[in-house]
Write a structure and sequence with these properties.
Largest sheet: 7 strands, mixed
Distance between the termini: 30 Å
CATH topology: Glutaredoxin
Radius of gyration: 14 Å
Number of helices: 4
CATH class: Alpha Beta
CATH architecture: 3-Layer(aba) Sandwich
CATH superfamily: Glutaredoxin
Number of strands: 9
Structural class: alpha+beta
Shape: globular
Length: 141
């Protein structure tokens, strides 16, 4: 599958070797900003361990570009506007919020190694999650 990054450039996910893909519902919202900035703050350590980091959301590339600029994110944000990729990896489905049931992006993180999902974190909390992922990968949180 190929998605556009925040600059409009295509990224072929089949070519990704080692990567952390975190799925966030909406750029520039409080929880998503917390999570994105936590991954930003760990980006160099993850990259030094051989992992590329990608944020994935249903946001349009230009909206993600504003998010990158506003928060100084050093990794690429991918647009999954039709949520086909999220659906294919179990990051889209039924959610509940204040008793209301609806379909949407489920905050999840996938660690990909050699083209296969090595770790899957589902329905995670934004705060502290990047540290948890780094810790699971043996990288200082």
């Amino acid at each position: 599958m190929t998605l556009s990054d925040h600059t409009g450039q295509p990224v072929s996910l089949g070519d990704v070797g080692k990567a952390v893909l975190f799925f966030y519902p909406k750029a520039m919202t409080p929880g998503c900003t917390t999570e994105a900035c936590d991954f930003r703050d760990r980006y160099e350590r993850l990259q030094a361990a051989g992992y590329e980091v990608f944020g994935v959301s249903p946001d349009k590339p230009d909206y993600n570009a504003r998010f990158v600029e506003k928060e100084g994110l050093s990794y690429r944000l991918l647009s999954d506007e039709d949520h086909a990729f999220a659906e294919s990896v179990g990051a889209w489905g039924e959610k509940k919020n204040y008793g209301k049931v609806y379909e949407g992006l489920i905050r999840s993180t996938l660690v990909v190694e050699d083209g296969a999902i090595a770790h899957a974190f589902r329905n995670v909390k934004a705060k502290g999650h990047a540290a948890r992922v780094a810790g699971e990968l043996g990288i200082g949180g």
